[in-house]
Amino acid sequence: MKKLFIVFILLVVQPAMAAMSVDKIVLYLEDGPSSRDDIVVSNPDEEPLYVKTEIFRVDNPGRENEERIRVINPDEFKLLVSPAKAVLSPGERKRFRFMALDRNLDEEKVYRVTFRPVVGEIKAEQTALKILVAYQALVFVQPEDGAYKVGLLEDGGTYHLTNKGNINVEVVEVRHCFSETECEKIETSGRLYAGTSIEVADVPAKGELEVLLRGQKSERIRFPLEG
């Protein structure tokens, strides 16, 4: 009996090889009428590629009660992706346009958009394994006056990086510094959403904490520690 096994893999980063590739996976949009950006999907395969998009709204991002809700009702679409589905010939590149309909936000909105290959009728001469790679883009729709405000909070000897702003920022690297030239890396990283915090473990109560942040730009900030 001849069989064909199909495996779906959902990736939020781009692998070295795949039957579909995207040029970026993080988008920043503003809550204005002209806010838009594109993701380019490529088909390096020798067969046609059928792709459809799925939009998820992320409620309470970065919190314990975070939810990812599939947006299906047309009245609830605040993020448009055009086209919603497409067929890419071998070697073809297709531009998918993202447009935000959110307006006058007090805090950024977060969406995840999946680019999923669609399986048609497949015939196999022998038992085989076909891997279909899906990609998920992270989309931030941000207020016109959006800004992150990262601080360091100490509570009972435990330190937390906090964000009291209204947009997210990524904590790329954290180092504990005894001096300008003597620093040790601390295994702390992650995305710091508005109103959330990240624990920084095993921090000596002296010197400084140096944090590398990355949003639409990158910066390093230092926090003095009480010793």
Can you characterise this structure?
This protein has 227 residues and is mainly beta. The protein contains no helices and 19 strands. The model is unreliable at 1-7 and 12-18 (pLDDT under 50). Keywords: Signal. Residues 1-18 form the signal peptide. This is Molecular chaperone.
Descriptors:
227 residues, mainly beta, Immunoglobulin-like, seven-stranded mixed sheet, 0% helix
- Give the strand content: over 45%
Count the DSSP helices.
0
- Termini, distance in Å? 72 Å
Q: What is the mean pLDDT?
A: 87
Give a concise summary.
This protein is mostly beta strands and 227 residues long. It is built from no helices and 19 strands.
Give the SSE map:
Layout (H helix, E strand, L loop, with lengths): L3 E8 L9 E2 L3 E5 L5 E7 L6 E11 L7 E4 L8 E4 L2 E4 L4 E8 L8 E9 L10 E15 L7 E6 L2 E6 L5 E9 L5 E4 L3 E3 L4 E4 L7 E7 L3 E7 L3
Parallel strand pairs: 1-11, 3-11
Antiparallel strand pairs: 2-4, 4-9, 5-6, 5-8, 5-10, 7-9, 10-11, 12-13, 13-17, 14-15, 14-16, 14-18, 18-19
